[in-house]
Write a structure and sequence with these properties.
With 432 residues, this protein is α/β, with parallel strands linked by helices. A 10-stranded mixed sheet has the order 9-7-5-2-10-1-11-15-19-20, with helices on both faces. Strands 14, 16, 17 and 18 form a 4-stranded mixed sheet that branches. A hairpin with a 2-residue loop joins β16 and β17. The longest helix is centred in the middle third of the chain and has 21 residues. The protein is globular. Bound molecules: guanosine-5'-diphosphate (GDP), 6-O-phosphoryl inosine monophosphate and magnesium ion.
Length: 432
Amino acid sequence: MASVHGSALDGSCTVVVGCQWGDEGKGKIVDVLAGDVDVIARYQGGANAGHTVHVGDQHIVLHQVPSGVLHPRKRCLLGNGVVLDVAQFFGELDDLAERGIDPGGRIGISTRAHIVFPYHKALDLAAEDAARDKIGTTGRGIGPAYEAKTGRRGLRVADLLERGSVVDKVIRGVEWARARLRELRADPDLAGTVEEALKLSHRLPAVATDVGDEIARALKEGKRVLLEGAQGTALDVDHGSYPYVTSSNTTAGAAAVGTGIGPTAIDSVVGVVKAYTTRVGNGPLPTAFDDEMDKVVRELGAEFGATTGRPRRCGWFDAVLASYSARVNGLTGIAVTKLDVLDTLPELKIATGYRIEGLVQSLFPAGVRELEGAEPVYETLPGWQTPTTGARAMSDLPANARAYLQRIEDLVETPVVMVSVGTRRSQVICRQ
Ligand code: GDP
Ligand code: IMO
Ligand code: MG
């Protein structure tokens, strides 16, 4: 089959990374590119991710399983940087099998990946309940699981494989969680945690693997590898709108750390951006629409969280954030998604700077108060008011849509290598 990826997959090993506040359409882009690679590996995050893939009449939201899974014969891996909710993972595999997609022998999980236990979810919810400034987490236990990892209290897939000693380790985790939950004045029922943790562990030996070794061998054999990020750059624990972030490094540098390969193995980095901006959960969104426009675009773009169903806040395209993402991730190309959502708008705005305390700057600030107070400086472009959903080449797009993409390319100083114009796999333009 002829390659569909155009110039996006430059070299053997490509990272796909979100460049806004998550939900950029990474699942769709990974699904499109997966047809041309041999291995797809998630490198961080956990079941907080919701990656939507539409193929034929199937509409699937993946939380733990990599978005390449719908392509038969592709090897799908979860790297050591991922936190694994065992029940969620096997539940997803079973759901896929019921839909006639049996990823059985082609799924692998790093033995070094940390486990998310039910008590991590209880801690996540209790911490949010008790907090004055709530993050608005997904409640999937992500923060507490990564805290346990860096606090050196975590349990890994390798621990669950050592069945003899694991019970004691889980009990210690439960006890630690109980003490913390008491401080938070929460009293969830943790009875049955050990049994639940071990119930599905017998399925782990079949999937446990050394992901770094697998990827290194695949690359040596001349195969192609895609490293799939979750969340987005502005949710990165170091580079995002801290503290309103997730608890992992979401950026492209984490793809090496989170899979167990060296950074020199990575050849290209595709940054996914929506043609506008959205955010779910709390924290600043400088280019947020007014209430009326927010409602219009939320409806047009069906902007409701794929994991929690919460409405996503919507705003104009933020070139300050996108340029920052291009630098932090070392982008070699941009994939612009949901261009079609803007089809009916008479004019569009792009933020080219932030006015902070009277001064215009083009750098994404570190301080959350600065970001909260940032007033975007906009430039206005004409809309195209023509459907783009049928476009399969840049030349099929209306001139104003091409001009909009060109402006993004110029401001972000990175070539637009893919444009998505609908939810389906076929609704994409891959530039050669
Ligand atoms: P992810 O977390 O980055 O994978 O993104 P989500 O799956 O959470 O959210 C993206 C949503 O936009 C999903 O419902 C996709 O089906 C949808 N989507 C992706 N690309 C396009 C596109 O080009 N046009 C439209 N209209 N929807 C898209
Ligand atoms: P995908 O991979 C959008 C947000 C949450 C919250 C913050 C912290 O689908 O793009 P967490 O549960 O991670 O501790 O929540 O991060 N968040 C996401 N927002 N897309 C995601 O994933 C997200 N994963 C977490 O809403 O604001
Ligand atoms: Mg999502």
